[in-house]
Fold:
Amino acid sequence: MSLTTRPKPVIDNWNRWFWDACNQRQLVLQRCTATGRCFYPPAPVSPFTGRPNWEWAAVSGRGELWSLVEFHQNYFPGMKDELPYTVAMVKLDEGPYLLTNLDGIEARDARIGMRLSVRLPGGPEGFLLPQFGPEEVAP
Amino acid sequence: MPPNVSLASPAINTPWPLRDKAAFVGIGTTPFGNFPETDSYGLGCEALNAALDDAGLTVDEIDGLIVSRIPSYERFAEMMGINPQYCLLTEAPGRFSAVSLALAAQAVATGAAKTLALVYGNNGRSVRIAYGGGDSEWSPWGMTSPGASHAMMWRRHMHEFGTTHADLGPVSVAFRHHACLNPDAVMYGRPITLEDHAQARPICEPLKLLDYCLVNDGAVAWIVTSAERAKDLRRPPVLLSGYARQDAFHYGSGPADDFWFPSLSACRSVYDRAGIGQKDIQGLGIYDNFSPTVLFSLEGLGFCGLGEGGDFVRDGTLPLGVGRWPTNTSGGHLSDSYMQGWGIIAECVRQLRHECGDRQIPDAQAMQYICATNISQSLVLRRADA
Structure:
């Protein structure tokens, strides 16, 4: 499947660092400095305090498959050739959910609750899109 | 929020200060279908005139106006020649139908307005509105559309509780059965079976075509005034006895990870607020944008346990004449008309006026409406003479 024709992310003042980090093959999240809890999507304030007290933190890129769906309807011109495609809801170990895609495993082989880890195989021009596949166990 | 977490203050045992203060005195609906020759303004005007005629009122007696999904309250008021003392536009999502009603009740109770027109108009079909696509937080991954969010939630429900896609079949089939008793329904004359539901074209699996609501043009108007004034009007007044609401804005605008169970559970306070118990209710109106929300609603309001929705509806709980809980007797969003709750609430009023003909719930005295979303709500309506 080709990630090059995917819709591009809409960059704003809060998510710019997230995407810049992806381009350096690192997953980062905002972390609330008062509670230590991470959140996503990027925002001007921590949702745990409502205050602008947060920092960017490199995270594990690991989590579990929480749910998944298979799209049969075409909504994006650049994704027509991928139909039917899977969107996975991944609960990161740090707490937040990401809506993402599977890489390196077919949807029919995926099991809710399975361990996954991030990879960055490509994306539309100028971006690397986080995708998730079976967790690679550290040697 | 994880399931099984109860909210801190569900306000059980507390009567609603606005109990039985506001009444429906007029209901108007347009035909439902594809009407490129008009628009949401034209449809809204038609529905409002029908509601005024139903109430026996003239437009100059309207001193409050709430407009929804019609683009401009100002233009709509100008068109209808209404110069009210209370006027606002509510957001387009369907959760705002019951929110609008609560605002109307507040306006009546506080004297902000005496007689309100609430008007919803939608021409989504003829302008071919797309519920998906476009730029969003999740578009790079192809995630889009309310249907996909509900598919994500339902897949998780299947995982946690062992439910299946087939558990949604009795919902779609019951509502289609009701639409076939309702000559005004978009799907009148087109019955379906459980087999049809199972074999329908997949849209965003696990959901298929017959799990999705319709998209059609139409409008709905309600006239709401005080219970006192309603006694002098021509229709049997229907009272807003209770209203309960709990919001939960899940972070990231992604699918809720709890089936809205905690916030729907908080809405069980609606019975105490109304002074009417669940056992005293004859029928339900449930916001059915997608079939899973019906089961989420039944679980959340305690008609069955969390995760038991599939078992609960399997043996005919929802169909008229068969089940204890006849639900969406007009056919709902799945088979009557996608009027985003406005039509379902109108149907509850018509049931209580005993105007529903072949689809009438015998001797209906009280009806309950439930909406499972990030603004979870429930309301109880009753006949004034009940």
